[in-house]
Design a protein that fits this description.
Chain A: It is found in: Cell membrane. Chain A: Keywords: Cell membrane, Membrane, Transmembrane, Transmembrane helix, Transport. Chain A: It holds the Pfam family BPD_transp_1. Chain A: It is a multi-pass membrane protein. The complex is a heterodimer. By secondary structure, chain A is mainly alpha-helical. Chain A has a domain of about 210 residues: MetI-like (MetI-like fold), CATH 1.10.3720. By secondary structure, chain B is of the alpha/beta class. Chain B has one domain: Rossmann fold (3-Layer(aba) Sandwich). In chain B, the strands form 2 sheets. An 8-stranded mixed sheet of chain B has the order 6-7-8-3-9-10-12-11, sandwiched between helices. In chain B, strands 2-1-4-5 form a 4-stranded antiparallel sheet, with helices on one face. In chain B, helix 7 links the parallel strand 7 and strand 8. The two termini of chain B are about 25 Å apart. Classes of the chains: A mainly alpha, B alpha/beta. Chains A and B meet through helix 10 and helix 11 of A and strand 6, helix 4 and helix 5 of B.
Amino acid sequence: MTDTNIGIAPPESFRAAVWSQFRKHKGAMFGLIVLALLVVFVVIGPLVWQPEKLKVAEALKSKNLGPSLRFPMGTDQLGRDQLARMMAAGKVSLAVGFIAMMIAIFLGTFVGVLAGYFKRLDGILMRLTDMFLALPLIPLLLVMVMLFRDKIARVLGPEMGAFILIVFAIGVTSWMHAARIVRGEVLALKEREYVLASRAIGASPRRVILRHILPNVVSPVMVAATLGVAEAIITESVLSFLGLGFPPDFPTWGRLLYEGLEYMQLYPERVIFPGLAISLTVLSVNYIGDGLRDALDPRIRGR
Amino acid sequence: MLDRADTPRRKLVEVRGLKMYFPVTAGVLRRKVGDVKALDDISFDIYEGETLGLVGESGCGKSTCGRVILRLYDPTAGSIRIDGVDIGAADAQTLRPLRPAMQMVFQDPQASLNPRMTVAGIIGEPLDEHTQMSKAEKLDRIYELMDAVGLNRNFANRYPHEFSGGQRQRIGIARALALNPKFIVCDEPIAALDVSIQAQVVNLLEDLQDRLGLTYLFISHDLSMVRHIADRVAVMYLGRIAELAPRDALYDRPMHPYTQALLSAVPEPDPEIETARKRIILTGDVPSPANPPKGCNFCTRCPRVMDICQSVKPALREIEPGRFVACHLYETTAAAGSTGAPEDHERNQQGATQ
């Protein structure tokens, strides 16, 4: 048996195949590099760039400065170094964006698959989804934050508490679109003959879902996920702007943007830098999602 | 095939009084307003090692029949015994260990293969489910199966979209064979292929049957292909079996008016016979299976309809040894003819089921 198999390539590793296709996607590679640079900027940046400690009198003198060698991105209205604030803010914004997106996608896919595959759960779960869609989100978030912020802050500290609460709040209020898309897709997929073949083998629903349904709903989920990152970052900014996100002295890209808003006409760089960072994140994530979706589809991968 | 008919054969599949009704719901509250009678009281046997052809027009319940026998649907009533075990009402847990013995080959080779799995993954899926083979053993078995269905081993890492229809159907057959089944339901396995490939696939199926001793339920609407492959043929009309007979008898001398009409539609290759051929043209449409006629299902279109057909459903009776017909035309002859043969058959059936 073994000697007849000589010359036959062993099954190519799935990851290697996906990676080699992903690398062919120019946009995706561009997105990956930009995102990697952003992550390096917010994680390694603070270790390299130590802003000088200013006394109060100095800080008052050096407020609202334009970009210079001393302050590469200028200073804010309190004389704080914008570059250092951008780095600290990015860490939070990126973390909020990705973790909230993951929660939303996980919830959405879970609900969508259950509703689509099990007819009995369909009615209940989709009505639940409709209910969440019908809720006005911003007031709901405000109420959630108002009710729970202090309780969580007492346990985890004000910053970590706010982070967990915001991520969770954004996650549980933005899964509905993913759920609807996934449900529709699953309804179509479960009537396919390969699902029937799998059932004829005696595979349990869990195996059928993991092996046949989930890999085939990857494309719409990927699209929903990339849009979700952007949405989460923006929603966090809105919350912070309304004073219900992170504490006021705690920078996020969204907050920097809103702080800069009133000085926009005098010091446009106060808005441009955080805006650019958010846009670059969203754009790169979109391209990565695009490339990943193509790479995961064998019909495109073969070419 | 003839010598097989003489020796007593073991029944592998016994279907008795099988009914499959799909509910029709309407309104906001989804109240049940009726049934689509996809299968209405069907009974037949399949002997070990034979091929039973199941023919009929679109929508007559052929595919539903195949799927119910494999318990992909839950039947409304009736019993299905495969190898002596009644699976008609068995739950998923009881069914799982029985699944390897019965498999299915699907109609559309494009839709029956997961586009995101490699050929090795597709053929190996049944092995993952039912065996504890190591990776190397599994790969060996996959290569063995690919050899058996005539696929190059180098194709193992490719994806379904890279294959032609015939090759895809071979992959589907290899998957069905993976667990050494005894009984395979072929649900129009050649309907989506072009003619030259049809012959290849049918020859492959026959070859596998000879080598592995498989039993087929071959569902098709292609009468000439059924004539080629089947040992016995069942003709279905609107959820009921109209006629069930050995192949040659059925094709030479169809008894049920529907079978006669169906066979008269098969074109002849010889142009002289073709021009002289007399077709029985049926008028009207197939009645809705949600609202079948009160009497015989065929009474609305039958060229030889009688009064009794409008009111009484004819039962499937054995007219001659091995020939079952559900038609009032033959009821009198059966009653007047020798009473010995049908009773003999009755006894046989009971003996076999015990």
